[in-house]
Amino acid sequence: TELVYLIATQDEGCIRSRMLSSVDAAREGFEQVIYEHLFKPVSIESLAEKTNRSLTSFKKEFKRHFLVPPHRWFIHQRLMQSRMLLVSTTKSVSEIGHECAFPNTSHFIKLFKSRYNITPALYRKTMKR
Predict the structure, then answer these.
(1) Tens-place pLDDT, residues 83-100
(2) Under 8 Å CB-to-CB from 33, ≥6 apart: which residues?
(3) Phi, psi (5° rounding) for residue 112?
(4) Tell me: the pLDDT tens digits for 33-76?
(5) Are 99 and 91 in contact (CB under 8 A)?
(6) What is the DSSP string of 17-68?
(7) For residues 33 and 13, what is the distance between their CA atoms, to the nearest angstrom?
(8) What is the C-alpha separation between 90 and 51, in angstroms, rounded?
(9) What interhelical angle do 70-88 and 120-128 show, nearest 10?
């Protein structure tokens, strides 16, 4: 412990730089895996495996990075993307749900409506006016 403290507190040390760059690289790798799988149907267990962490460790790390649990964050990100697609494309609600990695259209509509108090089709219609 003392050795780590001494290394970390040295202002000019290549070991300190290497330690800090390793931490940054690990963080970037973690986030990269998350963003690569944002719109893919992937389980939290699978993401934990891809980031070389146990499920518990993955969930703790995820919450530290994104401030909310993984499932909630993924749903929020996917719903935000779906809103953008609803107003910027002519794709069907079903296509958008599929593109945003929702397991089926009815699940997508249910989550969208619970989050925004409006169905995707009505949201599109309202926003196009």
Answers:
(1) 999 999 999 999 999 999
(2) 47, 50, 51
(3) -60, -50
(4) 999 999 998 999 999 999 999 999 999 999 998 999 999 999 99
(5) yes
(6) HHHHHHHHHHHHHHHHHHHHTTTS---HHHHHHHTT--HHHHHHHHHHHHSS
(7) 30
(8) 36
(9) 40
